[in-house]
Amino acid sequence: MKYPLLVLDALFFLLALYFTWESIREDEPRAPKIGAGLAILSLIIAGFVLWVPAARWIFVLCFALGILTLILLAIPTKPDARALQGAQGLLVSEAVRHDERDISFARQRSIPPETKYYDEYYKKLHPEKEEWDAKRRKKGLLGNPGSIDKGYRPNVAMMAASFDMPNFLGPFADAVPGPESPPSEIAPQKATEIVKNLARQLGADMVGICKVNPNWIYSHRGEIFYDKWDDWGKEIKPEDLPPYAVVMLTEMKDNCVRSAPHTPSVAESARNYGRGAYLSTVLAWWFTHMGYRGVAQHSRRYDIALPPLAVDAGLGEIGRLGYLMAPKFGPRIRIFATLTDMPLIPDKPISIGVDEFCKHCKKCAESCPSKSIPMGDKVIYNGALKWKLNADSCFDFWSKVGTDCSICMAICPYSRPDTPLHRVVRWYVARSSAARKFFPLIDNLLYGRKWHPKPVPAWLDYPKGKEAKKESYGLGKSNNFG
Ligand code: SF4
Ligand code: SF4
């Protein structure tokens, strides 16, 4: 019994060391101490096993209990049948298509006061929104950009520079082949293989394909760029859009998101909007050179809500915080897409246990400074059973910090870096209902329930205290971000 116990204990020691090392790398304040404590505990156990034979049975029992727990947690439960239906599975009654004009950003940016659009929207369509929107509009889209870090200029400039990229590429979002480019006769299977690999080669971290469900297409255009005011309020007809979508996720780097709601985090959001604009536009133009239409979906052109599209393309499920939760990255992603009429082979929606995990976790809701994420149960909203984020109060908080906040994204257990340690936990959670109840408790124990911004690489670090006042830069209010 002595030697098998020592082997098990050595394994326990190595695991504790690995956990400590990973947690230090992730700049976790509490987890490394627990890891180091467990490593010391394993040394104490070794001492008992070697020199107190009578105590060995206790450790046999403890290790047996630990191994049994791991086995029980791995017993698979049935996949979530609703998740496997894709975003359509969220619908419990008939839904009307979302109107892009109702989105907070569109209302702030694309309904200028004293215009006919203003009268149309606030006098005819939504008078109840006028007062709140007028107050919010005065603050600017992100308030004073980077105000939480006194507008620290290097980081705010990073954000602004990256947000410029979608702006540059937006006019080329809709790529239509000319007569010199007849449709290629490529087989759908081959085309799918090439498209997915091309997207990854261009920099997408995950790629999926789906048929476009018309329910997710906006009913009317609401975001106006490049002075195309004639488009405001125009109906978007599903038949005018290509029927397939290549949906791409880009990972937001954990070493920036961990600073949320400070400026490194919004600089990283912006960098990803830049990446997404590039990815989706190149792909749109690839389709065109192959003789098909390609319509990039990025922050200068959305015809369709992207989270349900990503669910349909098998890239994740929707979490309590209202974002897509991807298997490898959780909500620490941005979504982009390219619509096309080139025939492709769609992927299938997946079930990774998000719904049940979120029921027990609630960390994002507890940490949200504007209380925009519900603590309670799902509600039916426009035919869909979901946790309904209050987008207006969330967006209002952005103007207080001058960033896109992202605390909910940063604290989510699914957002932890894609390391072997977290991959094992995700494997358990995707597989077993018991794990979805067990791991939220473990996550709280190891990482705490409250959000504290963590350190970032020195080159991204923003000045604090008195130093921050000295570095008091600022770009002034602007509505052109995002
Ligand atoms: S971004 Fe911030 S304010 Fe908005 S829901 Fe997340 S935590 Fe709340
Ligand atoms: S923090 Fe918890 S409740 Fe919120 S989305 Fe992530 S897993 Fe779900």
Can you tell me about this structure?
This protein is of the alpha+beta class and 482 residues long. The chain has helices at 2-25, 31-51, 56-73, 104-109, 116-125, 130-139, 153-169, 188-202, 254-257, 263-289, 306-312, 354-361, 363-367, 391-401, 407-411, 420-431, 433-447, 465-470; strands spanning 174-175, 206-211, 244-251, 294-297, 317-318, 324-325, 333-340, 379-381, 384-386. Helix content is 46%, strand content 8%. The strands form 3 sheets. A 5-stranded antiparallel β-sheet has the order 1-4-7-3-2, with helices on both faces. Helix 7 (153-169) runs parallel beside helix 10. The model has no long low-confidence stretch (mean pLDDT 94). The chain binds iron/sulfur cluster (2 copies).
Cα shape: globular
Distance between the termini: 63 Å
* Poorly predicted sequence stretches spanning 5 or more consecutive residues: none
- Strand fraction equals 5-15%
Let me know the largest β-sheet. Answer: 5 strands, antiparallel
Radius of gyration: 25 Å
Task: Return the structural class.
Answer: alpha+beta
The helix content is 40-55%
Give me the number of helical elements: 18
Question: Which oligomeric form is depicted?
Answer: single chain
Hetero groups in this structure are:
iron/sulfur cluster
Task: Tell me the domain tally.
Answer: 2
Number of strands: 9
Main sheet strand line-up: 1-4-7-3-2
